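Hello everyone,

My group is preparing for a crystallization screen and wants a predicted model to guide construct design. The compound we'll soak is zinc ion. Before spending weeks at the bench, it would help to have a computed complex in hand. I've included the protein sequence and the ligand's SMILES below. Output in structure-token form would be ideal because that's what our pipeline reads.
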Amino acid sequence: MTEWGLFAVLFIALFIGWVLGRRRTPEPTKKELKKVPNDYFRGLNHLLNGQQSEAIDAFVDSLEVNSDTFDIHLTLGNLFRKKGEIQKAINIHQSLLARPDISPRDTRLVQLELASDFMSAGLLDRAERLLLNIASRKTEFQKEIFTLLVDLYEFEQSWDKAIKIGHQLQLDYPTKKQAQRLAHFHCELAEEASRKELWPKAYQQYKEAIEADSDCVRASMGLADLYMFQRRYRDAIKELKAIADQDHEFLPVIIPKLKESYQSVWGSGGYIKFLQEQLNKHPSATLIRALTEHYAHDDKEFAEQFIIDQLRAHPTIKGFQELIDMQRADAQGHDLENLSVLYGLIEQLTSSKPKHRCRQCGFAGLQLHWQCPSCKSWGTVKPIHGLEGE
Ligand SMILES: [Zn+2]
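Reply:
Good plan to model first. Here are the tokens for the complex, ready for your pipeline.
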């Protein structure tokens, strides 16, 4: 059902609610009897003319809030918020709160909706005050209150507060998604500490991120960066290799760091062994390129045959470009010219293509964002795989 279809149903439901309410009222005043039908027909007229917004306004105005229409008003308020008509949502929710006979449970329910309205309107201070006020007592809506508070603090980038409430939420209502989100909040604090060169604090926050979510690739990468900065390459290698188990889709991102770390301590033996192991399980253009580069040092012909075999099994534009580059090195005259033109064209084609894509909403871009700029999910933007990617 479309949103306006739902509005139409609510419209009719409101009328039924009014009829029921009227029946239960022993002696409706003359004013009530006269006013409601007029507004109802005015609303109906708007609806028939396709003026749904005016129709709902007329209808909402016509009805006093009573126990029969409470749920419908609540739903209408939420629909207005989702449609972006925040002031109407706030008006409806405030009129519900003004009811003299509203129960404590319904009061908290409406306050929760009102807090969502304030958040949608950007009135974050008011939303926070309201939520903290409801949260001060243990209620049946604890999960919803904490979830909204975490959303609010995340939006404000108040990471300390988001972590505090997020951990309470995770304690009572644990979910994997919430754990991932918490880990990223810790990573945000870690990166902030790194920018200020507060290394122990950065280290501590990355560790807490891993504690919150042992699969947090961002925390492992952050720790590896810290270790590399401190020339603790063995520790860096351990962290980087762990990423293959956490989420192998990020392997292309860590290969250059892994190479640098290995070369700083043990030479390339362990590095090549690791790449060869991963090639069988999770081939990617960056991985194939790294191995080709290594083979080409000793035996160029072998390296060329290797990349051709890999391209057959795992075709990518990047791999094809690598092959052209190798052949360009041996070419001369016209051949060199033609290969260079071809190489340049592929370069133009690939440089304008997005390199990362959100697995949640499909947003694509050149940069690796830890929080998707479009759907705001954490850790869902990853390197693109397939013909045009890895
Ligand atoms: Zn997204």
